[in-house]
């Protein structure tokens, strides 16, 4: 988890960032007639009907494809590659990026813009940028290889396509649109939908603004994001309880990768428990910022010693809302009727498991999601509701998740967690969570066809 990732490390866990993206990639490495395109938009291309129209309607999802699927490329250099969709018979360049990963799986944040692809590197683009399937009888004159990437919604079987083209000589200009950037000096991620501020040298947010284009008014929604963790261990004949918050996490930014599609922030995270304990390292943590979302996937390794010594565990991860963003409405899977956070005292703490919650006001609407392993749910671990409205305290109005019954972990091992925050473009209505949550619950499927 982005802010709470250190909580489990205190009990001896090691963590490592992973990527959110498409799964079930099928590579068909063959020469297939058709599925070609003309990026130049020649008259022949304009008059040629598409083989099949786009039906895919997913707008939030990034698509991440392993470079190992592109076996038909005549050379590995990314400088000769461009990505296109077909729209009304014309080839349209779309934003894309290639991200390098080293042998350990770490994303390279300080490498060159263009490089030679290795099988573990990644092509990244947005599902909303897919288009029609291309017609059968035309290619740009200097294109000597192409791959068709077919993207499928597993729920509806709706389809969209893009085409990765290799050019012998100087390729046409790429798409110029850039969806998001991360400014290390300001510790801020910016897109046309939001601005997200990180606290300097820490791993929590100190501000969040939703733009008018994305349904907000630019008002700062957050005072900060807060974390509270209290694990209790049985050690020999005594028990020890530790407490840590968002203020005790210390980060060192290892680098930032700013691409047209996503900006990646890679940090080394440690937890400061005061003078009696050394800083506890947690390893590498990534946050992937997209046009209307930011996502932190994480691998968590739970050692057997935790199962033997952990006797109690309390954890909360809460958004502390700025007063100017109120009044504000709150919904989650356990409170579908919603709650109003305003001047009255309201508290809601439930033990009904749920994986999303939404806040909506004139300042904007955002959905926050937290995915835990299915095995944890079967063992009785619960993501509970935390909502507070209490003007008599300095804590302020807030909402978020609690993590309950962690002492019911049954098996040591490595588990995947995902935390995501997604901007919704209009005030929330019941059911609006379905499409953004599909990105996490029903990942897009991808098939790669070598077509030339």
CATH topology of the largest domain: Beta-galactosidase, Chain A, domain 5
Report the oligomer. single chain
Task: Round the mean pLDDT to the nearest integer and report it.
Answer: 84
Return the CATH architecture of the largest domain.
Answer: Distorted Sandwich
Strand portion? over 45%
**Which class of the largest domain in CATH terms?**
Mainly Beta
State the separation between the terminal residues, measured CA to CA. Answer: 42 Å
Gyration radius (Cα, Å) is 23 Å
Tally the helices: 5
Total number of distinct structural domains:
2
Helix content: under 10%
Number of strands: 30
Low-confidence segments, given as residue ranges, are 1-49
How would you sum up the global shape?
A: globular
Main sheet overview: 10 strands, mixed
The computed structural class is mainly beta
Q: What does this 3D model show about the protein?
A:
The chain is built from five helices and 30 strands. The longest helix has 8 residues. It has two domains: 274 residues, Beta-galactosidase, Chain A, domain 5 (Distorted Sandwich); 162 residues, no CATH class. By secondary structure, it is mainly β. β22 and β23 form a beta hairpin. The chain starts with 5 loop residues before the first helix and ends with a strand. The protein is 6% helix and 46% strand. Strands 1, 17, 18, 19, 20, 22, 23, 25, 26 and 29 form a ten-stranded mixed β-sheet that branches. Strands 14, 15, 16, 21, 24, 27 and 28 form a seven-stranded antiparallel β-sheet that branches. Strands 2-30-8-9-4-5 form a six-stranded mixed β-sheet, with no helix packed on it.
């Amino acid at each position: 988890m982005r802010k709470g990732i250190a909580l489990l490390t205190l009990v001896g866990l090691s963590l490592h960032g992973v990527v959110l993206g498409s799964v079930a990639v099928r590579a068909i490495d063959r020469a297939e007639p058709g599925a070609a395109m003309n990026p130049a938009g020649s008259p022949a291309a304009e008059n040629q009907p598409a083989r099949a129209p786009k039906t895919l309607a997913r707008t939030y999802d990034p698509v991440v494809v392993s470079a190992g699927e592109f076996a038909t490329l005549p050379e590995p250099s990314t400088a000769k590659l461009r990505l296109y969709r077909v729209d009304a018979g014309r080839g349209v360049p779309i934003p894309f990026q290639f991200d390098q990963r080293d042998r350990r799986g770490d994303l390279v944040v300080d490498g060159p813009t263009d490089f030679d692809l290795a099988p573990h590197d990644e092509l990244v683009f947005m599902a909303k940028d897919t288009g029609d399937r291309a017609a059968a009888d035309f290619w740009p004159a200097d294109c000597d290889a192409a791959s068709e990437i077919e993207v499928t919604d597993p729920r509806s079987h709706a389809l969209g396509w893009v085409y990765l083209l290799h050019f012998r000589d100087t390729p046409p200009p790429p798409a110029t649109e850039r969806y998001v950037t991360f400014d290390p000096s300001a510790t801020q991620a910016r897109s046309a939908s939001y601005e997200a501020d990180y606290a300097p040298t820490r791993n929590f947010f100190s501000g969040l603004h939703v733009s008018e284009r994305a349904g907000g008014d630019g008002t700062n929604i957050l005072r900060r994001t807060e974390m509270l963790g209290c694990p209790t261990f049985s050690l020999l004949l005594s028990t020890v309880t530790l407490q840590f918050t968002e203020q005790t996490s210390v980060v060192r930014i290892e680098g930032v990768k700013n691409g047209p599609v996503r900006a990646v922030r890679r940090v080394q995270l440690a937890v400061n428990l005061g003078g009696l304990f050394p800083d506890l390292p947690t390893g590498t943590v990534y946050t992937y910022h997209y046009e209307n979302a930011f996502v932190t996937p994480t691998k968590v390794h739970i050692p057997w010693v935790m199962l033997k010594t952990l006797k109690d565990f309390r954890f909360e991860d809460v958004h502390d809302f700025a007063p100017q963003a109120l009044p504000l409405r709150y919904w989650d899977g356990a409170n579908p009727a919603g709650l109003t956070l305003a001047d009255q005292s309201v508290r809601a703490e439930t033990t009904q498991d749920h994986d999303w919650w939404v806040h909506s006001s004139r300042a904007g609407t955002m959905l926050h999601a937290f995915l835990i392993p299915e095995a944890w749910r079967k063992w009785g671990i619960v993501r509970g509701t935390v909502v507070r409205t209490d003007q008599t305290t300095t804590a302020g109005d807030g909402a978020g998740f609690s993590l309950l019954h962690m002492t019911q972990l049954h098996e040591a091992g490595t588990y995947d967690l995902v935390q995501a925050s997604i901007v919704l473009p209009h005030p929330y209505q019941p059911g609006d969570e379905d499409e953004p949550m599909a990105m996490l619950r029903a990942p897009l499927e991808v098939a790669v066809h070598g077509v030339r």
